Amino acid sequence: MTPGRTSAPLLDVRDLRVTLPTAQGPAQALRGVSFALERGGTLGLIGESGCGKSMTALALMGLLPEGAGVSGSIRFEGRELTALDEDALCRLRGDRFAMVFQEPMTALNPLHPIGHQIAEPLRLHRGLDARAARAEALRLLERVQLPQARERLDAYPHQLSGGQRQRVVIAIALACGPDLLIADEPTTALDTTIQQEVLDLLDELRRDGGMALLLISHNLDVMAAHVERLAVMYGGSIVESGPTQQVFERLAHPYTRGLFAARPRLGTDRAVPLATIAGRVPALHEMPAGCVFADRCAWAVDACRTALPAPTAVSAGHSVRCIRWEAGR
Amino acid sequence: MTPPLVEAVGLERRYRLPREHLFTPGAAVQALDDVSFTLRAGSTLGVVGESGSGKSTLARLVMALEAPSAGSVRFEGRDLHAMDAAALRHARRDFQMVFQDPFSSLDPRMSIARTVAEPLERLAHVSRAERRERAAAMLDAVGLNAAQDLDRVPHEFSGGQRQRIAIARALVTQPKLIVADEPVSALDVSVQAQVLNLMQDLQQRFGLAYLFISHDLAVIDRMADELLVLQHGRVVERGRPNEVLRAPAHPYTRRLLAAVPRPAWQR
């Protein structure tokens, strides 16, 4: 059965669970992650180190570490990705969905000219010959606004700046016109003004091509500026999700509130210390049965520790995994 | 009148790039160009700018890790770059550095006790027992548990804890100045808040001065008493952060401010 193109979301992730082998035995890195992304839509995954946001991206790409156990469902254009073998995934990866990584220097091969690296997915997935692939690579470099693109086709990554390299990585990801782009901290390694240029470029490319964007970042301000929907991750699950503006205005989950209060902002009173979140993220092998945030939460009650709270509706399309969300406001 | 803690006058630093042709010398890069400032004891000078603006070169000159091509850095009135090696070694206890990446700035094989006490090894009169004692006191000061943590190694700690360890190491010689080069850029938001609060506390407690380098205007606004905006090695704007950031005069400062992302629904 093929779901209708118009009704089904482009990407539908349901109850995704990933178990990783660790020295202390198997540990749950993702504990039932569910979200959907419409064709041409934008979704931000936000959270701190170890919350599972990059693990989610790797699971989508089929790039989980050796020995990882996956359950749940990842449907992309109606196809169940978790059921595909490596060959079938290889045909989709870099073609229908592609990824941009944080560090452009390690994502590029230092030994090959950039034109060659952009041409590779085109030859692999589109079967273009060398000449056609090179012409297309040039078009892509122009599309990501790399200055002097024609002269730079034969340049090596080390001859480019960080921002220019990230443009090349984006060009590679865009080569086959994917329906979904996953960008994992694409601008974290870049200067602020370059960061803005790269994010604006992603917005523009998305608007022109109808591509959906899954943006992973730890930066609240970047999210507020660039995604329509936001999912806040903590301890391997999505603790709050909804339209970005509503999440920012309601801050329903205590962790979202904590993150929001902790970030330094321009023009605040220096004499008042920044709000901090007490305690630390529990290690993977010591995840509690109940709400993972309970031990750091000012509003926690005994009931929080018995079971992982189910998503509760805050308003249409906005949900929170917290049984006390109304108490903290 | 006592001299300022740090006085930099007309600092310049040129680097020569490796030559590209056999018979022509490589091009010269002006990493710093006529940078002057004073830093009073117990206060914070913030430096903002992007990659290649000269921020880290400035830090290296103030730390006397490199000599300027022209100009001078005076620490309590004495020219750091005119001192002989023994005098400089002795002076170094008064200024220490904290780096951006707490994963690469700590030796993975060294215990926390040794890591924190290492700057004291240069000071001949401090006994082994006293070193351990001072390391323990510093770990307490940065909010770690000395009894538990002294004999552990860096990989047992999170990024935020490692940055606390790096700060403890910088504090152990009881310095008057800490040069902090992007000290919170690699940390998560909630951890970043803890480390910034800690640095403010320590400043009050020990009367520290900071040369605080960051690309994050909000962080600088919170930490600095005075602000230098560097572009291509030159100071393009300076002043009190709340004034400079509220009414930036230089186009480059305005560009930095404009690059701070704004919510889509407020545009």
Question: How is this structure best described in words?
Answer:
The complex is a heterodimer of chains A (329) and B (267). Chain A has an eight-stranded mixed sheet with strand order 6-7-8-3-9-10-12-11, sandwiched between helices. Chain A has helices at residues 53-61, 86-92, 104-107, 114-126, 130-143, 149-152, 162-174, 192-209, 220-226, 244-250, 254-262, and strands at residues 11-22, 25-37, 42-46, 69-76, 79-80, 97-100, 180-184, 212-217, 229-234, 237-243, 312-315, 318-320. The longest helix of chain A is centred in the middle third of the chain and has 18 residues, at 192-209. Helices cover 32% and strands 23% of the residues of chain A. With 329 residues, chain A is an alpha/beta fold. Mean pLDDT of chain A is 91; it is low at 1-5. In chain A, strand 1 and strand 2 (25-37) form a beta hairpin. Chain B has helices at 55-62, 85-91, 112-117, 128-141, 146-149, 159-171, 189-206, 217-223, 241-246, 251-258, and strands at residues 6-16, 28-39, 44-48, 70-75, 78-79, 95-98, 177-181, 209-213, 226-231, 234-239. Chain B is globular and about 55 Å long. The longest helix of chain B has 18 residues, at 189-206. In chain B, the strands form two sheets. Chain B has a six-stranded mixed sheet, with helices on both faces. Chain B has a four-stranded antiparallel sheet with strand order 2-1-4-5, covered by helices on one side. Chain B has 267 residues and is α/β, with parallel strands linked by helices. Chain B has ten helices and ten strands.
